[in-house]
Design goal:
The protein is an alpha/beta fold. The longest helix is centred in the last third of the chain and has 39 residues, at about 215-255. It has helices at about 25-30, 35-45, 60-65, 100-115, 185-190, 200-215, 215-255, 260-290, 295-300, 305-310, and strands spanning about 55, 75-80, 85-90, 130-135, 150, 165-175.
C-alpha cells in the first residue's frame, strides 16, 4: 500500500461503535490536546510544580490532517505560562531504543525552543525546563514494578550534586504494582488499560471519548490514521523481511551448503512465509474489525477477499 496515496483514500464509515482507548496514538493525541485535560494530567504527575495555563504548539487540526512519517513526531507537545515545556508520549511497544528515544525528544524540543526563543549568545540561563514524559503500557525497566520513574542529571561520584540543566525524563507504567503514585494518577493509568472507575477525571475522559466517537469528521480521521499506521508497519515489516532474507542467503553461501539443501530450504521458506503472511493478514483483519472498520476497508488494507473476511 502506497502511503503517499492515503490522502486520496475514500474511507466509508458505517457508524458502528468504535473500540476507543487512550493507548491509541491518535486518540491519545486528540483527547490530551484539551488544555484542561493536559493540565490536570501534568498536575497529577508533577504535583510540586505550578503548571498554570497550557499552550499547544500545534493545532489539533494539524494532528488530524497530517501524519508526519519523518523524524520525531510529538503526541502532545505543550508549554505552560511559567515557560516550562512538556512533551507527553504514549508508548505501547517496548523497543530496544526506548530509553535513547527520550534523548531524541529532548534534542527536538531543544531545537524548537532555540528556533522560537531568539536567545542571544550567552543567554542559556533563560532556557526553559523541559519534561519528556513516556506513558508505557508495559514495564520499561525489567525486574522493577514502579508506576513512575523520574530521571534528571546528577554527578556520578556524588549524587548530592545535581546538574540542574532543566532536562527531566519521566516514565509512567500502567503495569506498576507499588503504591508510589496518587489514587487519581493510578485511576488514569488504569483507564489507559481499559479499566473504568468512579474517578471524576476518568469519567470526564470517558464522556469526551463518547462525544468524539459520534463526530463523523473525527471518526474519519481516526480510521485514516489507523490505516496509515498499519500501512507504515507493513512497509517496515517488508523491509525487515527482505533484509533478513538477504542476510540469510549470504550466510548460507558462505557456509557452502549443498545445492539440494539450498533448494529444499528455499521451498520450505517460501511455503512457510506464504502461510505466515496469510495468518498475519487474518490477525490484522481481526484487529481492524475491532477498531470499527468495514469489510471493504479491511479488504483494502489486507488484500483478503470479502468471503475470507466474512469467515472471521
Amino acid at each position: 500500500m502506497d502511503l503517499n496515496n492515503l490522502d486520496n483514500l475514500n474511507i466509508f464509515d458505517d457508524g458502528r461503535e468504535l473500540n476507543l482507548t487512550l493507548a491509541n496514538d491518535f486518540v491519545f493525541g486528540t483527547v490530551m490536546r484539551n488544555e484542561r485535560f493536559c493540565r490536570k494530567f501534568l498536575e497529577m504527575v508533577l504535583p510540586e510544580l505550578d503548571i498554570g495555563e497550557i499552550v499547544f504548539t500545534e493545532s489539533q487540526k494539524s494532528l488530524q490532517e497530517g501524519f508526519d512519517v519523518r523524524g520525531v513526531r510529538f503526541d502532545v507537545y505543550s508549554k505552560s505560562e511559567t515557560g516550562k515545556v512538556y512533551d507527553i508520549e504514549i508508548q505501547t511497544t517496548n523497543t530496544p531504543d526506548l530509553k535513547k528515544r527520550t534523548r531524541a525528544y529532548h534534542i527536538e524540543a531543544g531545537i524548537d525552543i532555540m528556533n522560537k526563543s531568539n536567545l542571544a549568545s550567552g543567554e542559556y540561563h533563560n532556557l526553559p525546563d523541559t519534561f519528556v514524559i513516556f506513558i508505557c503500557t508495559f514495564q520499561p525497566f525489567k525486574e522493577h514494578n514502579r508506576h513512575i520513574y523520574t530521571f534528571c542529571n546528577f554527578c556520578r561520584e556524588d549524587k548530592s550534586i545535581a546538574l540542574d540543566d532543566g532536562a527531566y525524563t519521566i516514565f509512567l507504567s500502567t503495569k506498576g504494582e507499588l503504591d508510589d503514585i496518587s489514587p487519581e494518577l493510578k485511576a488514569y493509568l488504569d483507564f489507559i488499560e481499559g479499566k473504568l472507575s468512579d474517578d471524576p477525571f476518568v469519567q470526564e475522559l470517558k464522556r469526551d471519548l463518547a462525544l468524539k466517537s459520534q463526530n463523523s469528521e473525527w471518526r474519519r480521521s481516526y480510521m485514516h490514521y489507523n490505516l496509515w499506521e498499519y500501512s507504515k508497519q507493513m512497509q517496515w515489516k517488508q523491509q525487515g523481511l527482505e533484509m533478513g532474507m538477504q542476510e540469510g542467503l549470504e550466510k548460507g553461501m558462505q557456509q557452502g551448503m549443498q545445492q539440494g539443501m539450498q533448494q529444499g530450504m528455499q521451498q520450505g521458506m517460501q511455503q512457510g512465509m506464504q502461510q505466515g503472511r496469510t495468518d498475519e493478514k487474518f490477525d490484522t483483519a481481526k484487529r481492524l474489525r475491532s477498531m470499527g472498520m468495514t469489510d471493504e476497508q479491511i479488504q483494502f488494507a489486507t488484500q483478503l477477499s470479502l468471503e475470507e473476511i466474512k469467515t472471521l
